[in-house]
Amino acid sequence: MDLAAVILVEILYAVASLVLIGAGLAVVFGMMRVINLAHGEFMMMGGYATIVAVNLGINVYVAMIIVAPIVVGLIGLVVERLVIRHLYGRLVDTMLATWGLSLLFIGLVTMIFGNTTTGISTPISGLTIGAYQINGYNFFIIVVAVILLLAVFAVLRWTRVGLVARGTMQRSDIASAIGHNTSRIYMVTFVAGSALAGLAGGILAPLVGLVPSSGGAYIAKAFITVIVGGPSIIAGLMSSAGLLGVVAQIFTFAATPVVGEVALLIAAVILLRLLPQGITGRFLKGRL
Amino acid sequence: MNLTRRDLLAGAAALATTTSLVPWVPAHAAEMIKLGSILDTSGIFDAYGKPMQKATELAVAEINAAGGLNGEKIELVSYDTQSDMALYTQYGQQLARQDKVDVVHGGILSASREAIRPTLRKSKTLYFYNVQYEGGVCDRNIFITGVTPAQQAAVLIPNVVKDWGKKVYILAADYNYGQITAKWVTKYAQEAGGEVVSTDFFPLDVADFGSTIAKIQSAAPDLIVSALVGGAHLSFYRQWAAAGLNKKIPMASTTIGVGNEHKVLTPEEGNGIRVAYNYSHELASPTNQAFLKKWAEKFGNTDDIHELAVSTYQGVWLWAEAVKKAGTQDRMPVIEALEADLSIEGPGGKVTIDPKTHHATLDVHLMEFQDQKMKVLEDFSQRPPLDTQAVCDLQANPDDNQQYEIKI
């Protein structure tokens, strides 16, 4: 019974962390069709921003939830103005450019912080469930993921900004004909996606030993989650993170973490074979 | 491609110019002894490589300040392999064939060692590998001065089984080091009357241990033994502490601390972890105190000294003593001098070369993490490399050249 509760928490945690990892990319890739291969590095920089802020004496929650998204959002702003805006609609070129950016960021962070593992401790102590101890921080990640999904949904569904952004992504020529400044809308959307990546990096920082190359561990999972999810941002992210997270955790518990990772990849391959447009290309069509 | 005669001539001319730009390297500059160093001082392994390079420089500077070896100064030729295995092959060739060094010290990962070992053997260049590794290399041209799994496990495991209980849960990195270490841990746990309830292996990029932590609790072991390796695996210690388990189930490790990881974890996360190594900053011996002082004078700060740096320092000194004893830097006399039970007193204690295996017999210290330091609990003097001794005898088969998989 206790074990079942622990497994349930771990499954929810796995789903929540996939949501966090994928959210920024869902906006940048899912909405804007920009293949951001530097997404992992954006997360890594969010982690470093958090650690630096905490070491400067800033409250750890402020560092994770406010400092990290702002710092990475600003980096995203610079990147969008200098590089990405010249490459909208050119998929392969953005891939190459963002891959170059990812190498640049790894190099810069290595120069500044050195190539050693850093990290901070989790701010929440362990919890007891029956005979088991679990990481209390898992609950925090689950809560943040839920709030994040609700917030993104609310902005896109009920605000004018969200409506205009969605419209621009679908037909930028029409949006521009109605009088919207599409270049600015693209910029804001990219910055929002970057800030989400920074948030995810900040929130996950206390759980990992951070090195400049940590981004590599996130990038594959982020793309798999977003591509399996398909065209709808929220529904896609939730359905694919839910499915893949559950599959991965069940196999991890039944066998080993390696088998869990393999199961996740196999599930993704099968899904894409059956639903090449992603889950929301078939089901929940047209939802957000 | 359409190549005209003119293009060809132009190309040839350009080629001739570039060739003449390559500086001319004298084959034997003056009468210097040449020591080649080949280490990753940049890239992902630089946390290991940089202090090792410093240790080499320190030892060479000391030897030169004392008048060199047999009246000749040592010239240090260093290459940075940038954590790229391909560069080991290239620079290894360069050290052996172009620089014609008398000895090579270096290599960090087992893969890097195996990349240069054949080249150095073929070109008859003496090689020192100064790193803790999985054991089993049997080659008369190589000397290995780091600790092997049996040396650590033989000290660590009986102690923790006695102090903490009989049920052992092993976590290890999923490559040859972790696999082999897990076998030795199992063997010593059983000999001490313990039992291994489970052994889990993790690829080097696994960073999420939530499910593992739950599984460990359902197995309810008395202690866990970790042979996890690298930055991603460091997450385990953090997540273990975040679940509050570091206060409930004690842990021993054969790997944490080698790259000074105990300084990355907070005291709350690290306190109480037991390890067994050759070196700790906290060793009170006069040799270690003198070593720390010399390091501080040369580099300012002693925080970056770790196990592998000290192994390197001891490796260079072992070679230097052998050159003195042999009266020459030529390869065979030096090997014979090393095989004649040569020993030195290093920062980690006495180090003796075992003539049968060319591995080191050395002091192993049982230690516990205490406020980001390694507090020495007990000293075990002169532990032989039992694992490699079980398979390798270079006195009986001097031409042996392989890495054995040790059957336990």
UniProtKB/TrEMBL annotation, chain A:
It holds the Pfam family BPD_transp_2. InterPro entries: ABC_transp_permease, BCAA_transport_permease. Its main location: membrane. The chain crosses the membrane at residues 6-30, 64-84, 96-114, 134-156, 185-211, 217-238, 250-275. It is found in: Cell membrane. The keyword Transmembrane applies. It comes from the Bacteria. One of its GO terms (biological process) is amino acid transport. Keywords: Amino-acid transport, Cell membrane, Membrane, Transmembrane, Transmembrane helix, Transport. One of its GO terms (molecular function) is transmembrane transporter activity. Belongs to the binding-protein-dependent transport system permease family. LivHM subfamily. PANTHER family: ABC TRANSPORTER PERMEASE PROTEIN (PTHR11795:SF447), BRANCHED-CHAIN AMINO ACID TRANSPORT SYSTEM PERMEASE PROTEIN LIVH (PTHR11795). This is High-affinity branched-chain amino acid transport system permease protein LivH. It comes from Oceanibacterium hippocampi. The lineage of its organism: Bacteria, Pseudomonadati, Pseudomonadota, Alphaproteobacteria, Sneathiellales.
TrEMBL record, chain B:
PROSITE patterns: TAT. Residues 1-29 form the signal peptide. It comes from the Bacteria. InterPro entries: Leu-bd, Peripla_BP_I, TAT_signal. CDD domains: PBP1_amide_urea_BP-like. Belongs to the leucine-binding protein family. This is Aliphatic amidase expression-regulating protein. It comes from Oceanibacterium hippocampi. The gene is amiC_3.
